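ugh ok so i messed up the first submission bc i forgot one of the chains. this is the corrected input, ALL of the components this time, i swear. 342 residues overall. if the numbers dont match what u have on ur side tell me asap before i send this to the collaborators (the ones from the other lab, u know who)
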Amino acid sequence: MKKINLGIIGCGHWGPNYVRNFSTMPEARVVWVSDLKEERLTHIRQLFPGVKVSKDSNRVINDDTIDAVVIATPTVTHYKMALRCLQAGKHVLVEKPMTTAIKEAETLLSLASRCKKTLMVGHTFTYNSAVQAIKELIGQDKLGRLYYLYSSRTNLGPLRSDVNVLWDLAPHDVSVFSYLLGCLPVKVSAQGASYLRKGIEDVVFITLYFPRNIIAGIHLSWLNPRKVREITIVGNKKMLVFDDLNTANPIYLYSKGVIRKQISLPYYDTFGEFQYIIRDGDATIPKVAMKEPLTAECRHFLECVMTRKEPHSSGRDGLNVVRVLAAIQSSLEDKGRLKEVR
Ligand SMILES: NC(=O)c1ccc[n+]([C@@H]2O[C@H](COP(=O)([O-])OP(=O)(O)OC[C@H]3O[C@@H](n4cnc5c(N)ncnc54)[C@H](O)[C@@H]3O)[C@@H](O)[C@H]2O)c1
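and heres the new structure output, hopefully the right one now
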């Protein structure tokens, strides 16, 4: 079996996780790692002595033996880096968000399709086994008709300077919500504030309006005393809380709800009356086999490159998330005015 030769560009906090994961996979060979910082290359050299390193990403992109490139550089560089890789005939796995503009994402998508290369985006949470278990629970109608969802993604830092907290963290929630609901929000609104650095929002509150009268809230912050990674989903049969920081028991499924019981017969000239009964049942903990989501993502990328199948987090999904983020950004700049998703 021919191995897939990989280059990984960007080895700050996140990139080394790709090097570690791909290095354990028999179908892959990590040939190059590139980073602008010498100390990051020294770090990689120490951990993975067999890997070639360079400060110049052209060494990776122009190497004819390289089949695929993983891009884990800062967000604002994703577009140009992915464009160069696709133009050089490489398959690409680019970190989230795919780009910072809709036009750029469209360009990457059409280029990948024209040159028949895999374009995949690092929507890592959609590879999380708890998120996949939730998707199954929704598919089996365990939650009933969905009312609303909300997500808290807060921490004290890490602060980024190339993008605001929206472009940094919302790709996770937008990709997960769209995956779970099987559709994109139609309209969005958002408010936020820049407390630490002018023009870079560090706190954002978002509302997404999905079809079927489902609303979703997202609270994002780099300026919060607690690290929270939590999603709540409320349906008319059951309610669910997913705590990504609780690795042993990430999902709690609550048999709680409100039953609407008709207590008088409707007549032609009167409305029926209803009694609302609180149903406060048990909480159960569905079993979830915890695996590192990035391992599943990396394995899937290799499979897509080898079989040419459409990735689970495809370039099209990358574009869709950018479309939602762009609408949220527009609302943020317009004091929370409702915006349509283009
Ligand atoms: N999917 C996830 O769960 C997840 C988690 C964390 C970060 N990310 C994404 O990964 C990307 C990187 O995040 P990070 O936290 O590692 O950032 P980081 O700033 O720690 O690392 C980025 C690295 O890229 C290097 N770099 C910049 N320009 C380069 C170039 N032209 N050539 C080579 N190297 C270059 C920098 O020197 C730096 O070391 C971001 O897009 C972020 O959104 C995704």
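quick check: The first helix runs from residue 15 to 23. that seems consistent at least. The chain is about 30% helix and 30% strand.
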